[in-house]
Amino acid sequence: MWEGKREHPRLILHNFITPEECKELEFIHKSCSTVGYRPNVFSTTLSHLIATNSPHLLIPFVSIRERLKEKMEETFGCEYELFIEFTGLISWCRGASIGWHSDDNRQYLKQRDFSAVCYLNSYGKDFKGGLFRFQSGEPATIPPSAGDVIMYTADDRNIHSVDEVTDGERLTLAMWFTRDSSHDEDSNLISRLSQCASPEFPLPLPASANMYWFCPHQHANLNTGFDICVARLHLLGFDVHSLPEEDRSLDASEQLMGLVQLAKGGELLARKFTNVLHALQVVQFCHWKASELKTSKVGSDAVEEVKAMSRPQLETINALNAVFLPDEGLVTTTFGYLCSNGEEKDSLNLTDASSAIASWEEYTCKLLKELLSSLPQWETYQTLHKVESG
Ligand SMILES: O=C(O)CCC(=O)C(=O)O
Ligand SMILES: [Fe+2]
Q1: Among 18, 174, 211, 351, which is least packed, fewest CB within 10 Å?
Q2: Pocket residues for ligand 1 (CB within 6 Å)?
Q3: Which ligand approaches the C-alpha of residue 150 most closely?
Q4: Same domain? 35 vs 146
Q5: Whether residues 287 and 155 fall in one domain
Q6: Nearest 5 degrees, angle CA 74-CA 80-CA 83?
Q7: pLDDT 10s digits, 299-322
Q8: pLDDT tens for residues 198-244?
């Protein structure tokens, strides 16, 4: 069944994830990611999605997880034995790498039996460096390609590494599988969903006031970094304007948790977003769906007003950037792809972002409806699975 020998139980699958699924997961990651578990790594776990009041974003993972688990059990001959231990979108930015290791190499990781790494973007096209390598056995080197999956045992028969990423953002869906039901991710997620899932429209909520990422390898007293949301918006050419709060005593980090507006090229969009995460989700949605949204141009009455910025508004933006984005260059070197000449910056304007709001709301409602109708069955069977509607 496996391509390699028995000493190195592993399987490479090509195009297991569709291009549309890759794009949707990329949208989720770019609108929700937080600081990851290694230097220059950013992650979006399923529990983080629940914590940021975006539980509906679990839905796009459901059928992918199900298919991967089935394939894993079939490949390694352990039908109905496995539980998913961890699911996360992980991006490896410039400077990120990992040396030789097996995935169960810590006492607290011993429950891990199998690993699956799904590539959501491609070596050469989206990033440089970042080759996956097995220390022994074939294949030895794997250049990530969108849609491909590597499955392998988590023990020392599959010691592997990832070369340093030298440009761009390398995106994966990483999953671990276990035979130990006490490490079942699903039952944990379901109990959290049962506590929080309300039929109300979910407006994203930053999980904590601090989404600030510190750049490693800097001299300790020269610490620089950025707020992840502000940085991601900046990469698409948008600035954030916060609205004056009644309570002026709020410290800087709180300003992104309240009402914000989007600005670009000296103009400001009248529409107010609940917080920076809300603005980011809409903008990333707009980026994901850009070609569709442009062809189906919504009536101009739906387009919100774009006005020239006043001087105090410009000053507010500059003050926010000084705190949350002190080093603009760091954003491009971390999240950008230098080969692409920063064309992403000019791809969207304020009117595009404004007309994407309705479609983003529609998308969110559709997923929420599916979540709410699936949850009773998930609770009964204690697994996240595709529930046929109607
Ligand atoms: O991203 C990859 O290709 C593998 C990552 C990895 O080895 C790990 O996170 O343990
Ligand atoms: Fe690994």
Answers
A1: 18
A2: 98, 103, 117, 132, 160, 162, 172, 174
A3: 1
A4: yes
A5: no
A6: 100
A7: 555 556 899 999 999 999 999 999
A8: 778 888 988 765 577 877 765 555 568 899 999 999 999 999 999 87
